[in-house]
Design goal:
Elements lengths: L6 E6 L2 E7 H5 L4 E8 L5 E11 H8 L7 E6 L4 E5 L9 E6 L2 E2 L9 E3 L12 E7 L6 H4 L16
Parallel strand pairs: 1-10
Antiparallel strand pairs: 1-2, 3-4, 4-7, 5-6, 5-10, 7-8, 7-9
The chain binds ligand MTE and molybdenum atom.
The site of molybdenum atom has 4 residues, from loops.
InterPro entries: OxRdtase_Mopterin-bd_dom (IPR000572), OxRdtase_Mopterin-bd_sf (IPR036374)
Organism: Comamonas aquatica DA1877
Protein name: Molybdopterin-binding protein
């Protein structure tokens, strides 16, 4: 997509509380993370290098502190996935824009994807355009189809 059209919106329930354009987003403090990632179909990939903006930074920039216990991430392609807020804070997740020091490739979610490396990779929504903070845990695309609401690979939380 054209970067001029890119937006990231934070919502509390249905209410939009903050929107960043691409250039505004680029001005936020960036973080680099080298992490292992785990697909639900059993592959893992080790020492992957990502750069982006942590959820802590986003929440701070929006003046939101732990608004609700649950988050539903939404993507350009209609995909969604739910994650407990506790799995997104304290440096555990970012909106990633770079992989291996290069802009994130479109097939891997570029220009920006959610990255939650300690959960199964279906939680890492590609082409993310909104994070919705909810009082209740609302199932996303795969979770509605039987995947686990949290998805911890070390507990093999594949199915709900
Ligand atoms: N928007 C969106 N994000 C998505 C998906 C999708 O279909 N749409 N698939 C998920 C699944 S099931 C996996 S395994 C990973 C794949 O990421 P990759 O293509 O970078 O390997 O993206 C996740 N994020
Ligand atoms: Mo997947």
């Amino acid at each position: 997509m054209a970067l001029g059209d890119w937006r990231l919106t934070l919502k509390v329930g249905v209410r939009p509380v903050r929107v960043w354009t691409w250039s505004e987003f680029q001005a936020l403090p960036q973080t680099e993370q080298v992490v292992d990632i785990h697909c639900v179909t059993t592959w893992s990939k080790f020492d992957t290098r990502w750069r982006g903006v942590t959820l802590d930074t986003l929440l701070q920039a929006a003046g939101l502190e732990a608004p609700t216990p649950w988050v539903l991430a939404h993507s350009q392609d209609g995909y969604s996935t739910n994650v407990p807020l506790a799995d997104l804070t304290q440096g555990r997740a970012m909106i990633a824009t770079h992989y291996d020091d290069r802009p994130l490739a479109p097939e891997h979610g570029g220009p920006a994807r959610l990255l939650v490396p300690h959960l199964y990779f279906w939680k890492s929504a590609k082409w993310v355009n909104a994070l919705q903070f909810n009082e209740r845990d609302e199932a996303g695309f795969w979770e509605l189809r039987g995947y686990h609401m949290r998805g911890d690979p070390f507990k093999e939380e594949r199915y709900g």
